[in-house]
Amino acid sequence: MAYTLPDLPYAYDALEPSIDARTMEIHHTKHHQTYVDKVNAAVADSPLGEKPVDALISDLGAVPEAIRTAVRNNGGGHANHSLFWTVMGPGGGGQPTGALASAIDAELGGFEAFKDAFGNAAATRFGSGWAWLYLDSSGKLAVGSTANQDSPCMGASIAGIAGTPILGLDVWEHAYYLKYQNRRPEYISAFWNVVDWNAVAERFAQAQG
Amino acid sequence: MKHELPELPFAETALEPHISAETLQYHHGKHHAKYVATLNELLPGTELEGESLEEIIRRASGKLFNNAAQVWNHTFYWNCLSPRGGGQPDGPLTAVLEQQFGSFDQFQQQFNEAAKGLFGSGWTWLVQDASGKVSIQPMSNAGTPIRQGDTPLLTCDVWEHAYYIDYRNARPKYLTGFWNLVNWDFVAQQYQAAAPV
Predict the structure, then answer these.
(1) Cβ atoms of B138 and B180 closer than 8 Å
(2) With an 8 Å Cβ cutoff, are A182 and B168 in contact?
(3) How far is B150 from B129, CA to CA, in rounded Å?
(4) CA–CA min distance A209, chain B (Å)
(5) What DSSP character marks residue A102?
(6) Residue B167 has what pLDDT?
(7) Distance to chain A for B27, nearest Cα, Å
(8) Taking Cα atoms as reference points, which of A127, A208, A121 lies closest to residue A166?
(9) d(Cα A118, Cα A140) in Å, to the nearest integer?
(10) Residue A17: is it exposed, middle or buried by C-beta count within 10 angstroms (0-12/13-18/19+)?
(11) Which end of chain B, N or C, is less packed with Cβ atoms under 10 Å?
(12) In sequence order, what E strands does chain A have?
């Protein structure tokens, strides 16, 4: 069974004007598709491809060394983009409510402090990568960033941070260059308009187990 | 000493159709300029203030290294490009590429593989080490041969900002455009300058 490109849960223009339709279409049909194709090629001769992609990249130690980097990069790319599409949506924005809001208040100093920390993580990631809100190994919310297509679920020895991602922001230049060019901070600001906090809250609940 | 953004060694439109004026406006006027500005913000009060750019690159770490190296790398990249570029080198560099890689085509193919295979942001370099040996080295993010004291001969910027306006996700097409612009005279001068006596 091969990994497949998930459909976007909304139209390419649904996140306008925060994220433009042209960017969404290329990002989804070209960049994400390439990660899917390449992770499939990497695991083609291995039973590892039976695992859900999150499980695959959460245990890179189980991946033979010859294909480990390919799985890390492309499995990571597939998993991260799959998460990214689902934590955004038309009608997004605003603030989280319920248990997630309480946890952000208690563990991250409130929503504004969280936004600052997350925005800073996104703005200062040098090169390509992701900013994350994730549940760390002690079950607390944390904010950080990873390089390239690394994910907190790969563990600290690989990704630098460890845990279960519940919100991610792609800061590869391809995620924003057509609309924002060099102005990554404007893209980060616009992202808050499209975050689907219900989807993030669901991931938070699942991550807590 | 304030570091300054060098002028492009050609007009903004000069590299079309391979690299557009729009790309150069952002790449030089925004990205390169921002690295220079950030470097100038970071330096005052550090022990590296007043040192040459190369010395900063050799000794700095973190954000200071990143910005200093990106200033240097971009200046070198512009010099590697020319509206009258492309084709193949001649002179001693041709012989060394043939000797090292089998042929010019094989060198170009290996350089392309390295540039395509560099995951994320970075630079693909042709480098000459102290023993005179020439090699292809992909380096992530702000990576630069200056750091380890090798002599850069040629570089290709594979940060997405170098090609996204013109080529979107198609990095291989950008590489094809790049080869039409390589300023072999400049590259050959670097090689001769570095050749052991």
Answers:
(1) no
(2) no
(3) 5
(4) 33
(5) H
(6) 98
(7) 8
(8) A208
(9) 15
(10) exposed
(11) C
(12) 129-136, 141-147, 163-170
Among the partner residues A26, A126, A172, nearest to B66 by beta-carbon distance? A126
Q: Which residue reads 């039409």 in tokens?
A: B180
Q: HSE, CB side, 13 Å, CA atoms: give it for residue A63.
A: 25
Largest Cα–Cα separation, chain A = 48
A179: closest chain B residue by CA? B165
Cβ-count burial of A2 within 10 angstroms (0-12 exposed, 13-18 middle, 19+ buried)? exposed
Tokens of B50: 């007043």
- The mean pLDDT of A79-99, rounded to a whole number, is 97
What six digits make up the tokens of A144? Answer: 């950080």
Q: Do A30 and B160 touch (CB under 8 A)?
A: no
B31:A174 CB<8 A: no
Range A168-178 burial, b when 16+ CB lie within 10 A, else e: bbbbbbbbbbb
pLDDT digits (tens, 9 = 90+) for B16-66: 999 999 999 999 999 999 999 999 999 999 999 999 999 999 999 999 999
Q: What does the longest C-alpha to C-alpha distance in chain B come to?
A: 50
In the predicted model, residues of chain B with pLDDT beneath 50 are none
d(Cα A9, Cα A24) in Å, to the nearest integer? 12
- Tens of pLDDT, residue by residue over A114-142, are 999 999 999 999 999 999 999 999 999 99
**Which two three-digit tokens encode residue B149?**
């004291």
ipTM: 0.95
Strands A141-147 vs B122-128: parallel, antiparallel or unpaired: unpaired
For residue A129, the distance in angstroms to the closest alpha carbon of chain B comes to 8
Cβ–Cβ under 8 Å, residues A170 and A69: no
Q: Which of A186, A194, A197 is nearest to A111 (CA)?
A: A197
DSSP per position, A100-115: HHHHHHHHHSSHHHHH
CB atoms A182 and B66 under 8 Å: no
pTM tops 0.80: yes
CA–CA gap between residue B11 and residue A131 (Å, rounded):
37
